[in-house]
Give the backbone structure.
Amino acid sequence: MEDIKQIALRALTGAFIDRDSTVVKRYFAPDYIQHNPAIPNGPAAIAAFIAGLSKDFSYEPGMAVAEGDLVMVHGRYVGFGPKPMIAVDIFRVANGKLAEHWDVLQEEVPASATASGNPMFHTPERRAVSRRKGLLAGRCK
């Protein structure tokens, strides 16, 4: 059986990178509960959401953390608005399916405009490159 991080990452990748609506049947529970105020409950709403993504939309998953039946994925969404959005998607997993979802979103601020000089989002690949170049100084591990 897949672990909950794999379930969440495969569902997000399938939905937002591959734009494959068949991930809904594979990874979303029939009684899926949605806490994002713009999206209704149920897997059909997710399938419709995927179908309505613009050609300019993109998604990058970042780090994933799991404990118990909860998994959180830090990600970067482009195409929801005029600026990229950084998000933490939180899922409750039950019986190998995404059963419930919450998210926290904010517009991305460029590293050059942050008080720390650190970016808001790094994929594992970007963190590795930044570390090799000495740009992280131990941050963003």
About this structure: The chain has four helices and five strands.
